[in-house]
Amino acid sequence: MTDTIVNLALDPLGPHFGAEVVGLDLDRASDEELAAVRAALVDRKVLFFRGQDLDDDAQVRLGRRLGELTASHPVVGGVDEAHPEVYALDSTDNGFADVWHTDVTFMPRPPLGSILRAVTLPDGGGDTSWADSQLGYDSLAGPVRQLVDQLTAVHDGNREFGYYLAQRRGGRGSVWDGAVVTRLDPVEHPVVRVHPETGRKGLFVNPGFTSHIVGVSDAESRAILDLLYAHLTKPEHIVRHRWRTGDVAMWDNRSTAHYANRDYGTAHRVMHRITLRGDRPYGPSD
């Protein structure tokens, strides 16, 4: 069965999470259609669009119609000088995402959302999965929700990108939030993030960038984070996408985490991503 929001045809992937948008040409969509996409993104959290014909120019143009674009990445430069907003994930240059993460949570203002398109795909493998952090929070037991509502976590980009910034970029990264990134100072975010548009709570920790919980012992921090990661990535909280040429995925970075399978050996996989400028996360106690 297909649901309809305004003039969008949505094929839901689950009861609450994920949908394929059917029959929409993103490069020719009207302002009203893209406003409906934006609303559906908040509601369904991750959207998929088949059969698109976008290049880097069209991807940037689409992003600018949906919001304010960031640089490609705080540390990694754009795909070329003409497209500083486009982040190339190339398997020949360590462009993997095979750890659960939410994009760029190691900055004070992580992206609102991301738009990813398939450029080069292996013959098989390379699927991407998304986890719904709001469903993850809602399905925790009440006492656990009360605990995590009070907690703050540290996110550290040095874990993944410190070496790249120092060695590949000579200590000078991109312009992010109006300043050149020259170091990756750890930042603190609430463990439970309140979505600024819906008020819903979601888990906002991830194995890729979260280093520890503030104000508890190392053992307690590891135990809490392991519990949350295992719970967040339960199958009932996940949708999985098998990529085809022409596919575009769009997700709300404030309410999801994702993981790309690295199961295609030496085959070549290239994805191009842009991100929309976000706001500073706040929690239930803010």
UniProtKB/TrEMBL annotation:
GO terms for molecular function: metal ion binding; taurine dioxygenase activity. Its EC number is 1.14.11.17. One of its GO terms (cellular component) is cytoplasm. InterPro entries: AtsK-like, TauD-like_sf, TauD/TfdA-like. It comes from the Bacteria. Keywords: Dioxygenase, Iron, Metal-binding, Oxidoreductase. SUPFAM superfamilies: Clavaminate synthase-like. Residues 11-275 form the TauD/TfdA-like domain. Belongs to the TfdA dioxygenase family. This is Taurine dioxygenase. It comes from Plantactinospora soyae.
